Structure formats: structure tokens, C-alpha cells
Amino acid sequence: MCSAHAASETDQLIEDGLEAYKAGDYDVAIGKYTEVIQKNPKNDIAYNDRGLAYKEKKDFKHAIADFTEAARLKPNWSIYYNRGIAYHENGNEDSAIADFTKALKLNPTPTAARADCLIGRAHAYFNKEKAAPAMADLNATIKLGGREAEPYVLRGILHKVNHDYERSLADYETAVSLEPLDARSYNLEAYLLSVCPVPKYRDAKKAIAYATKSCHLTNWKDASYVETLAAAYAEAGRFDEAIKFQTKATEIDASVVDSKRLALYQQKQPYRELNRKGTEQAVANLANINEKLVIEIGQQMNAQFEVKGDQLVDPKIGLAGKETPNSLWLDFRKDKQGHVLFLWHSFTRNLQARCLARLKGYDTYFETDILPVPKKVINRELWNEPIEELVLFDFKLIEAKHR
Questions:
Q1: pLDDT band (50, 70, 90) for residue 107
Q2: Looking at the chain, which residues constitute the CATH 1.25.40.10 domain(s)?
Q3: Which whole number is the average pLDDT over 377-382?
Q4: 403 falls in which pLDDT band (50, 70, 90)?
């Protein structure tokens, strides 16, 4: 009788703990599960469920300890999955990957459980910038035939990082169709439709519609979604609305807003994302750059300048093969090593210039390095990327540095 009564009391405590957990009363839930453990230190369910409550409180130390004890008492895929999520949320991606892998080896069923493990591991790989295994897990998840948006959303992000904009937009669109009330899917697609550096993938009208939908779904309280709407209006050339919504986004949460975009919209320029590593800034057009030379792949050019102190101004294009005073000769060509720009000049000091580059198929530029060009020496600049056009500007004469 005592044993049966104890079992009944334990079951009630676990049920009470579950009800408290569902209600968000995590401290109460922890208390109930602790009572169970005090009565029966080998109750794996109580350890697992208390770990879940600790995880919700962001107390990852105690959550992981409870999941570890639960796994020792009774190894189960769900316990390794739960601990993997705790590791992931605490930033320990290697341990998270190990636990999701253990969970998968235990062959979780039904299919949705296996999909959850794959998605969890994909998130961990993604945070470690391991795109290939993340993509493999997402493809495996989608192959299982689930109807959730999450794997398509994350795969869409990976496609975007890989500059595969067509597949990225297709995945975002699938995510929208699967979960029509998922604000994140609308926002991600609207953002890419607004700021993509490849013009054929931009669609201002659809971007405005999707960005507005994401704002409605979040009651206009998410600053990043409102900022996307501003970018969509800028792409449409409606800069008054872009300024309005960029300002609104800043008022909601300035910490997540790009402070540089407002100035762009005030200058009637859209925002572009280069989708490149590093600190390179996108340049949407050349309207604000004066005294520039534009050369496309396969071209040669000779430009003669006026010298004003250290500045070179008023470039005039002459015959490519003719050497003239105060001139710069350019030859931009493709060879076996990549895209090469040859520079030579007739100035008495070293020449320095800034340079923008545009990739094939893009209408957005990024700044790239040009080393100072010594006098009477042919300088060679090499790029391995498919650069189609270079823009040189801000020409100066500098003294050679002696070692």
C-alpha cells in the first residue's frame, strides 16, 4: 500500500510540475520536480522536466546538470535533444552538435522528432559557420516531408550567404506558403527583395507588401521589421516613406537599427547589402563621386590630369597608347590568374587612388584596395573575383616611403 501511495503522490507532483511549466511558473515547477527527486533520486522524468524548467529560466548550468543525470539514469533521444538545445542556447555549439548527433543515433520517432534533431544540429553548424553540414542537415529535414517553415527559412539564409539568391527567394516563398502567419519569413524575403545587389532579384512592390505584412503580424513592435519596410520603400524610390519608417524603427529600438541608412535615404539613395565578409560598404550608385575614371574589363585607357597641389583633378580621356605628361595609363584585362588591372603613370611622385569594384551581374559596388603606384613602374593589381567594372577616384600624389 505504501509503495502504491508513493507512486500516486509522485505522479501527482510530476503532473503538477507539468501544469506549472505550461503556465510559465518555472520556479513552482522546479519545486515540484525537486520533491519528486527527493522521494526518488532515480526518477529520470523529474530530472529531465526540471532541466526544461531551468532552461526556460536561462539557468543553463543547472539545466545541463539535470539533463546529464537523466541521460545517465535512462538514455533517451529526447534527453540528448533537450541538452543539445541547452548547450546551443548557451553558446556551446560543439557540445550541442555532439548531443544532437547522439539523439539521431538513437533513431527518434516519429519523423517530426528526427526533424527537430536535424534542425537543432543545423542551427549549431550555422553558428559555427559550417555551411556544408548545416545545408546537409536541412536538406535531410526537408526530405522527411515535414510541413514546417523553419528548415526552409534557415536554408534560404544559407543560400543567400552563398550568393544563390534565386534559391534563397524560393525557400523563403515556400516558408511563407507553409506558415502564412510567420512574420520572420515575410521579413527575410522582403529584405532580400529590397537590398539584393543583383538587380534582377529585387522587387520593390512585393517587398513593400511582405514587409508591411511582417510589421502587422508583430503589431509594429519589431524595429528590424520596420527597418526592412524602410528599405523596401527606398528601393521603390519613395524616400519620404523610407525616412519615415527608418525613423520609426529607431524610435522602437535604436540598438538593432543601422544608423547609416537614414542618411542614405535623405540623399535619395537605396540601401544595398553586399553580402560579403569584412567591413566593405556598399555603394548603390556613383552619383556622389566626382573626378572618377570608369573602366570595364577588356578596356585600356589613358587619362591626363590637372595637378593642384597633391590632388589630381579634371581627368581627360586620351588615346590609350599615347604617353602624355601628368597622365595615368590603365589596362583592365582577364588572364589565367584572374582579373588584372595594370597601372602606369608619368607623375614625378607616387600615385594613390581609391577604387570601387562591381561584380558581374551586380549594380552595386564595393571598395577594394589599390596599392600606391610608384613612378615609372607598371603596377599590377589582381582579383580572383569576376569583377566587371572598376571605378577609380580621389587621386592624390604622395611621397615614397623610405625604409
A1: confident
A2: 2-198
A3: 93
A4: very low
- Cα separation, 350 vs 252, in Å, equals 50
Q: To the nearest whole number, what is the mean pLDDT of the chain? A: 93
Phi-psi category of residue 298: left, alpha or beta, with phi > 0 → left and psi -120 to 50 → alpha: left
pLDDT of 330 reads: 95
Q: Are residues 129 and 277 in contact, defined by beta-carbon separation less than 8 angstroms?
A: no
Q: What is the pLDDT of residue 182?
A: 96
Which is nearest to 231 in space by CA: 217, 218, 215?
215
The residue with cell 516519429 is: 110
Looking at residue 2, its pLDDT comes to 39
Please give the backbone phi and psi of residue 215, each rounded to the nearest 5 degrees, phi first: -70, -40
- pLDDT tens, position by position, 111-131: 999 999 999 999 999 999 999
Q: Does domain 2-198 have CATH number 1.10.1740.10?
A: no
Which of these, 392, 306, 289, lies nearest to 343 by C-alpha position?
A: 392
